[in-house]
Amino acid sequence: MSMRPANLKQAVSLAATALATGVMPQAMPRDPARDAALRALAAVAGERGWGLPVLRDVAGAQAELLFPGGEAELVEAWSDLCDRDMLAHMQDTPEPRLSLRVREALLYRLPLDEAMRRAASRGVSAQLVGGGQAAFRRGWMRTVNAIWMAARDESSGATYLTKRLTLAQVYGATFLYWLAGVPDEAALAAFVDRRLACVRRLGQARGVVVGRVMGLMGLIRPQAAG
Predict the structure, then answer these.
(1) CB-CB contact of 179 with 110 (8 Å)
(2) pLDDT at 6
(3) Which of 108, 151, 198, 210 has the greatest number of C-beta atoms within 10 Å?
(4) In 52-191, which ranges are E strands?
C-alpha cells in the first residue's frame, strides 16, 4: 500500500476539524496482555507492517483475539499506548511553565527513534489506505488531548476547546515534519519552538485587536498615563 502526502495532510486537517466538536473519542480497551502484544509488534512493524500474521508471529496465536478490529485497531491501540507512555513520563517533570511542559510532551511523543517513526509511517498508511480513516482521527484526537493532559493544563469551557484546536495545528505540522524524517533532535526541537512561538505571537496580536475593538465599543477604558 502507498499513501500520498496530500492524503495524510487532508486526514490531519479532518482530525483537527473533528476536535471542534469538543467531543473526545471513548478510551480504548487496555490491559497488560494487549500492551505486551503491541510492544512486540511495534518493534518490527516498521519493517514487516501491522498485519495480524505478523502479530501472531511475534506475540503468539492467541494475540489476534485481543484485537477483533484487525489492523486498524492495532495501530489505534498502539497510538493510545504511546500516549500513555508520554503521560507516565510527564508525571515527574519539574518544569513549572505550562508552555514548556507542552513542548516537552510534544518532543517525547515524537522521539527521534527511527524504528518508531517507520512503525508510525506504516501504521498511518495502513489506516488511511486500508479504510481506517475513522480510527486515524480518533487516535489523533486522543493524542492532542493527551499532550494537554500531560502538560497538566486545567482549563475548561471555551478555553479548553481553543487550546486543543491551537495545539492541533502545532502537533499536525510537527507530526508531518517528524514523519518525513528529521535530521537530528536539535532540528525537531527548533521546529517545535518555531511553531509554539508563532502561536504566542498570534495570541498576542489577537489580544491587541480584541482590546482595541472593545475600547472603540466603549467596553473598556484606556488606563490613564502614570
Answers:
(1) no
(2) 76
(3) 151
(4) none
Gap between the Cα atoms of 45 and 117, Å rounded: 10
- Confidence (pLDDT) at 210: 34
Close Cβ partners of 115 (under 8 Å, ≥ 6 residues apart): 43, 46
pLDDT at 160: 87
The predicted pLDDT at position 218 comes to 53
Sign of the Cα pseudo-torsion (80, 164, 150, 189, in order): positive
Burial class, 204, CB count within 10 angstroms (exposed 0-12 / middle 13-18 / buried 19+): exposed
- The whole-number pLDDT of residue 224 equals 46
Taking residue 194's Cβ as centre, other Cβ atoms within 10 Å add up to 13
Hey, what's the cell of 101? Answer: 511542559
**CB contact at 8 A, 6 and 176:** no
Residue 68 is classified by DSSP as T
The three three-digit cell numbers of residue 225, written as one number? 498615563
CA distances from 150 to 85, 93, 107, 137, 214 (A): 10, 10, 12, 20, 35
Count how many Cα atoms sit within 13 Å of the Cα of residue 197 in the half-sphere of its side chain: 6
Question: Cα torsion for 92, 108, 82, 177, to the nearest 10°?
Answer: 160
C-alpha span between 195 and 69 (Å, rounded): 36
Residue type, 182: V
